[in-house]
Amino acid sequence: MTTRPVAEIADRYRWFAQVEAAGVSPLYEAFAASIAADADVLAFLADLPAGKQQPNLLLAALQYLHGTATSYPELRNWVLEDADRVRTTMLTHATQTNEPARCAALLPLLAGFSEPLTLIEVGASAGLCLYPDRYAYDYGGHLVGGPSPVTLSCELSGPVPVPARVPKVVARMGVDLNPLDPADPDDRAWLHALIWPGHPERRSRLDAALDLAAAEPATMFTGHLLDQLPVAVAAAPAASTTVVFHTAVLAYLSDDDKAAFIALVGGLPVRWISQEGLGVLPAVRDRLPAPAPGDRAQLVLALDGEPVARTAPHGGRLDWLAAT
């Protein structure tokens, strides 16, 4: 079992507090900062595999088991007094946040491809981002798509190519180590636990998107992306444009697997959309203009390896890069 030194775990929780949760979830910001200074909770985390020590996973496991803590002492007690159940939940679950609002950043790119489209999401979770044509959009008052039980609002800056309509999709496929079933009550409960406190609109949006996906299930390929992506691509209808995309997924890969994935997707007959953290794809990062304030907390949207925009991690904002 690969573990990390306690000091590295503390640094990870401080980073989460200062960058990822700051200004987004004051409660999680405070909790993560307190965990970073708590020797007992850090010792609990240090006993887990390195890939199971991240803040999102611990905080989601606690929400799943106990609900939202109202204070740090309460959260601390849950970790230390219910350690066996918390550990088991963290070992058997993964951070599979499935936020349909991320589709508002994907749509301007998807609408620019020749139709119809085959969509393949890597790290699909319950597949909620495989339904961009089933959602309605409000781009600063410019309405696209609909009617739909899910309306995605997105603030814009820069020369965003806002589409006139949603594209036609003929196939939806997901690749995941453990795909979640949008109709399964326990899977739905886990997805709710992954939502940060203070965002009730995300919870209602999640339920509406889950209902939509349950009524029109996507095709899921279970297994490692390096093994299953070629299988999914081979299953795409011949007369469609195949689009492979992913959001906040590649950071969970080893460096070797990440390099292998980039080489793999580059050799397949597909268009490739990535939405990842600033440093996850160095080749994309190095093509960005000078960093702007807050860049560390944003994702970078790229098409075939070329950056086109910065996006909010859970949707709601799209900052298009000026043409060069």
How is this structure best described in words?
By secondary structure, this protein is an alpha/beta fold. The protein has two domains: 6-92, no CATH class; 100-320, Rossmann fold (3-Layer(aba) Sandwich), CATH 3.40.50. Helices cover 38% and strands 19% of the residues. The protein contains twelve helices and eleven strands. It has an eleven-stranded mixed sheet, sandwiched between helices. β9 (299-303) and β10 (306-311) form a beta hairpin. The mean pLDDT is 94.
Report a brief summary of the structure:
The protein has 324 residues and is α/β, with parallel strands linked by helices.
Which key phrases capture this entry?
single chain; 324 residues; alpha/beta; eleven-stranded mixed sheet; 38% helix
The neighbouring-strand order within the major sheet is: 3-2-4-11-10-9-8-7-1-5-6
Strand residue content:
15-25%
Name given to the CATH architecture of the largest domain: 3-Layer(aba) Sandwich
What does the radius of gyration come to? 19 Å
| Low-pLDDT regions | none
Sketch the topology as an H/E string, one letter per element: HHHHHHHEEEEEHHEHEHEHEEE
Derived structural class:
alpha/beta
* End-to-end distance: 47 Å
SSE topology:
Blueprint: H1 6-20, H2 26-35, H3 39-46, H4 55-66, H5 72-81, H6 83-92, H7 103-110, E1 117-122, E2 136-139, E3 142-144, E4 151-157, E5 169-176, H8 185-193, H9 200-215, E6 219-222, H10 225-234, E7 241-247, H11 255-266, E8 271-277, H12 282-285, E9 299-303, E10 306-311, E11 317-320
